[in-house]
Amino acid sequence: MPDAQDSQLLRTPEGLVVVDKPSGWTSHDVVGKIRRLAGTRKVGHAGTLDPMATGVLVCGVGRATRLLGHLAGHDKTYEATIRLGQSTVTDDAEGEPVATASTVGTTEADVLAAAAEFVGTQEQVPSAVSAVKVDGRRAYARVRSGESVELKPRVVTIAELSVKGMRRPSADLLDVDVQVTCSSGTYIRAIARDLGKRLEVGGHLTALRRTRVGDIDLSMASTIEQLEASLDMLPLADAVRRAFPALVASDEEAEDVRHGRPIALDDKQRDEQGDEQGDEQSDEPGLVGVFDRSGNVLALMEPRDGMLRVVAGFAGGT
Q1: Apex CA 228: angle with CA 223 and CA 232, to 5°?
Q2: Which of 144, 51, 52 is closest to 89 using CA atoms?
Q3: Is 251 a catalytic residue?
Q4: Picking from 27-31, 175-179, 272-276, which range would have the lowest pLDDT averaged per residue?
Q5: Cβ distance 76 to 57 under 8 Å?
Q6: Could you say which of 20, 29, 50, 217 is catalytic?
Q7: Which of 93, 224, 268, 297 has a Cα at 20 to 30 A from 205?
Q8: Is residue 23 packed enough to be buried (19+ CB in 10 Å), middle (13-18) or exposed (0-12)?
Q9: Please, which pLDDT band fits residue 306 given cuts at 50, 70 and 90?
Q10: C-alpha–C-alpha distance, residues 297 and 246, integer Å
Q11: Tens-place pLDDT, residues 97-121
Q12: In the structure, how many helices (H) and strands (E) does the chain have?
């Protein structure tokens, strides 16, 4: 018979819940809802979405919370609308306007040329109303208390900034629909702000929808209403296989991994990971999901000094 810990594991749901976050909800609101639906407080999320934003919010339940920090680092895709001709204090539609300028002389060619300049690796100053900490306090808290905040630039990579459409809500304003694929830590509000600056008319974000986090996209997402009817959860092992290359350990290696010990990164393992990562692989692969022969996920491991070492273990309890 299973012991008490095994019985608890069997009763506690665990895995990823992919939510199509509605506008007006904070990411914390979504976590609270999943906690109630799953009947456990052990729920977290990967990659905060602002209340105005919608789309893919990946939540982890039970031991799957150990995946979230690693999933948050994956690249992301967004659909957004940028309003040119008006700047706001928050760089989005929720903030008060601080400057306006006519876009009558701003042509489609101007917008396309400016957008193309954002593609690549660059330094980006986060929006002042962001979750970045300044001397221990969130930047948004400082701004909302009346402080002036200057944030340091950070290196981000924008793989795509495609213009999908343009229209004029008024004579002086120009709305630009874009699709953005970018590295973790990129602020779409900052792109809206900086595009407006580059065109010398100002800009802010009016709509944002996240469509993908790594290999997890909207096709896997459920609305809050759908989750209330049935809590659709991607099992932990399936989630690891979807997000990371998989490696099956021998029985001896599996026992080492269960106890947090490293295992050898031999040539066969290198070859298997190279096949998974195609032409993108470096001399050492990235994170690997390690499984036993029965298909149970044991850990996420990373290569260091010729060994695979545990960075997140799943063999124990919650």
Answers
A1: 70
A2: 144
A3: no
A4: 272-276
A5: no
A6: 50
A7: 224
A8: middle
A9: confident
A10: 9
A11: 999 999 999 999 999 999 999 999 9
A12: 10, 19
